[in-house]
From TrEMBL:
Signal peptide: none annotated. Pfam families: CecR_C, TetR_N. This is TetR family transcriptional regulator. The keyword DNA-binding applies. It comes from Maritalea porphyrae.
């Protein structure tokens, strides 16, 4: 997990109350930034909604911008930790083992994207940062997306025989992640079409199974292609 800029040392050694306040500010900021945008959200609004003193933002995060970066880092750390639990410690894998590891890792991330209690706000926050294309997005790319995506591409390479850094490999891995992301950001349309009330854990399981079946079909097709 990354060190947070502007965080007072007491936050690392402080009481549960300190941790609770810090976490409340993070979750509230992610929610408000995702709904209203960074510029339109004031620190006073965040502190009030989090039931915290406005000075606690500068205490824990240094500034509103520091809080924004901490929000991005908390999301990135959660996604990275979720994927890491399913990723292998060794690259010495057979094609079938790599397929299983790739499926497990992507499945874990997909379920996080769809069923985590704060997944809607997290996805919306990240999309806001993508639209602005600022320094926070650079950090998300450098510390989360690029290293995780490269690991997934290496697993795809072992599973299929495709070069890990080939443009087609990179796009195929993105396409699998993109399927799950669509269900998250397109939830209002998806649930209407399917007659669901919402995407909860049972629905997330169905979506995950479908996306991972698509992944298996893509891997089989790649193996056939590389044998010809």
């Amino acid at each position: 997990m990354w060190e947070e800029e502007g965080t007072h040392t007491r936050s690392d050694k402080g009481s549960n109350a300190d941790d609770n306040t810090k976490n409340a500010l993070l979750q509230t900021a992610i929610s408000l930034f995702s709904k209203n945008g960074f510029a339109a959200t004031s620190t006073r609004e965040i502190a009030k909604a989090a039931k915290a003193n406005i000075g606690s933002i500068s205490y824990y995060f240094g500034s509103k911008e520091g809080l924004r970066r901490a929000c991005a880092r908390s999301i990135a750390s959660l996604v990275a930790a979720t994927a890491a639990r399913a990723l292998p410690d060794s690259d010495a894998l057979s094609p079938d083992e790599a397929t299983e590891q790739l499926s497990n890792a992507l499945g874990s991330v997909i379920k996080l994207m769809l069923s985590h209690p704060n997944s809607r706000n997290m996805a919306a926050f990240l999309l806001q940062e993508v639209s602005e294309q600022g320094e926070v997005l650079d950090e998300i790319y450098t510390h989360l997306l690029e290293p995780l995506h490269k690991k997934l591409c290496r697993l795809w390479s072992v599973a299929t025989g495709d070069p890990a850094e080939d443009s087609q490999t990179i796009m195929r891995v993105f396409s699998v992640l993109g399927q799950a992301l669509y269900f998250r950001i397109g939830e209002p349309l998806v649930v209407r079409r399917l007659g669901w009330e919402r995407i909860g854990k049972p629905e997330a399981e169905q979506i995950s199974e479908m996306v991972l079946q698509n992944l298996q079909d893509m891997i089989i097709a790649a193996r056939v292609r590389n044998k010809t």
